[in-house]
């Protein structure tokens, strides 16, 4: 098979079809996955990209060649695949490249119970075996088809009851991604009884060429249509899902984006009301408001590195009820510690539906500080620039430095910044927070001046 280093990333597989990821590669990876997962059956799902069905079928051939059965769930979101892995207690594979452009595809894999597979937890072994080649083993396994969408929707509804909420007008931008498939089942009345929600759909047509805008709501440029429709219709809330619908972004009734940290704090408050004293995970780039609010609500906040494998591992170690990241990934203990944007959206809808105030007033309680958002700087010497920044700040009175994930510097006035190197690109990623916008901008500009020097 040759070197697969181009497509194997820290947490998953991503490549350009067919240049670096084709059916033969998927077949080899399927055989390797079957060996590493070491289970009698695996479940496979795929997104709406034109290449996904062929790649998923080839992967299934690799799996069945090892005498392992495949449950083909067909079209689904990544969190539906996690549901399938947990519900069926099987390892799983999801074919998606999330928010990447149309020419990309990829594979997200997990062990039974949606336990993560990353570079240090099986992915490196899968790569090695796929590169070496895995011979077929004995009698071939079988492929069966199973529609899990209704079971997925019913399970999510069992976790968050929206039936008693006031009627809400909700604009949903699916970005031609898998939200167009899952939202009607979970929030609409397609598969289960109708909820008190009036859904205004935007770009629900499944189209992996993304004809309207990239399915990446982390880039606010892709929220413009959602914001306009919320304002035009006078909706109570807007929701935007990424391509594989595992992340959800929220805009309020004014069309203004709600920071993911505010959503993390809001959902944490809901979960702590249900289970007082529980632990909540937050990565080190979420707002300081998150651990503050968790403590105020009687919970225990635990700070972790960025990335789902770290979040999920820490949740398992601590028994945490919930975890949130700045990138709008939300993790739930009752969802096999996996991330699901749909469940986070349902928590927000429940809060809004139980309150007469507009969403902007509700979320103001959870937004305490000014944040820069993530700023990417292209640099040739990531380590050298980061060292220069550390040298400039480390000697300041009251400054605290840590290296949990990149460089974090906390200052006595409550300001802080984090500078992290990208694993895949020559980039430094900067996030800054301060008590007010002016202080944030001063600190941001000072750090950027050093990074870009």
Automatic annotation (TrEMBL):
Domain Alpha-D-phosphohexomutase C-terminal: 374-448
Keyword vocabulary terms for this entry: Isomerase, Magnesium, Metal-binding, Phosphoprotein
Gene Ontology molecular function: metal ion binding; phosphomannomutase activity
Transmembrane segments: none
Keyword Phosphoprotein tagged: yes
One GO BP: carbohydrate metabolic process
Cofactor(s) required for function per UniProt: Mg(2+)
Keyword set includes Magnesium: yes
EC number of the protein: 5.4.2.8
InterPro entries according to UniProt: A-D-PHexomutase_a/b/a-I (IPR005844), A-D-PHexomutase_a/b/a-I/II/III (IPR016055), A-D-PHexomutase_a/b/a-II (IPR005845), A-D-PHexomutase_a/b/a-III (IPR005846), A-D-PHexomutase_C (IPR005843), A-D-PHexomutase_C_sf (IPR036900), Alpha-D-phosphohexomutase_SF (IPR005841)
Sequence ranges assigned to domain Alpha-D-phosphohexomutase alpha/beta/alpha in this UniProt record: 6-128, 151-255, 264-369
PANTHER family membership: PHOSPHOMANNOMUTASE
Family: Belongs to the phosphohexose mutase family.
Name the record gives this protein: Phosphomannomutase
Species per Swiss-Prot/TrEMBL record: Streptomonospora nanhaiensis
């Amino acid at each position: 098979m040759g070197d697969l280093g181009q497509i194997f990333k820290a947490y998953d597989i991503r490549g350009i079809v067919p240049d670096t990821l084709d059916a033969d590669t998927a077949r080899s990876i399927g055989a390797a996955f079957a060996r590493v997962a070491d289970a009698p059956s695996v479940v496979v799902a795929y997104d709406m990209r034109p290449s996904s069905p062929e790649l998923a079928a080839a992967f299934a051939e690799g799996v069945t060649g090892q005498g392992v059965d495949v449950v083909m769930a067909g079209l689904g979101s990544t969190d539906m695949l996690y549901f399938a892995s947990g519900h069926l207690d099987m390892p799983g594979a999801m074919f998606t490249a999330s928010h990447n452009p149309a020419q990309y595809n990829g594979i997200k894999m997990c062990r039974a119970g949606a336990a993560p597979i990353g570079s240090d937890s099986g992915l490196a072994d899968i790569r090695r075996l796929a590169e070496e080649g895995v011979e077929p083993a004995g009698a071939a396994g079988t492929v069966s088809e199973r529609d899990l969408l209704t079971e997925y929707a019913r399970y999510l509804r069992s976790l968050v009851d929206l039936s008693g909420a006031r009627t809400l007008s909700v604009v949903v931008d699916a970005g031609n991604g898998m939200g167009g498939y899952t939202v009607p089942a979970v929030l609409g009345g397609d598969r289960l009884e109708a909820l008190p929600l009036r859904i205004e759909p935007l770009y629900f047509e499944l189209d992996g060429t993304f004809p309207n805008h990239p399915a990446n709501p982390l880039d606010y440029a892709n929220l413009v249509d959602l914001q306009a429709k919320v304002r035009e219709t006078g909706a109570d809330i807007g929701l935007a899902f990424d391509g594989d619908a595992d992340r959800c972004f929220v805009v309020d009734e004014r069309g203004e984006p709600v920071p993911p940290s505010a959503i993390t704090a809001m959902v944490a408050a809901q979960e702590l009301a249900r289970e007082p004293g529980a632990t909540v995970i937050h990565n080190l780039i979420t707002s300081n408001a998150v651990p503050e609010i968790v403590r105020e609500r009687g919970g225990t906040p635990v700070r972790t590195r960025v990335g789902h494998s770290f979040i999920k591992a820490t949740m398992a170690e601590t028994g945490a009820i919930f975890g949130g990241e700045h990138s709008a990934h939300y993790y739930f203990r009752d969802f096999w510690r996996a991330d699901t944007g749909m469940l986070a959206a349902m928590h927000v809808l429940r809060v809004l539906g139980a309150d007469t105030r507009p969403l902007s007033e509700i979320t103001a309680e959870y937004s305490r500080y000014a944040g820069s958002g993530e700023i990417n700087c292209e640099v040739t010497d990531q380590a050298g620039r980061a060292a220069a920044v550390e040298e400039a700040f480390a000697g300041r009175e009251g400054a605290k430095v840590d290296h949990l994930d990149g460089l974090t510097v906390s200052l006595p006035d409550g300001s802080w910044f984090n500078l992290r190197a990208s694993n895949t690109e020559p980039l430094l990623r900067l996030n800054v927070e301060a008590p007010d916008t002016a202080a944030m901008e001063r600190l941001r500009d000072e750090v950027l001046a050093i990074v870009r020097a």
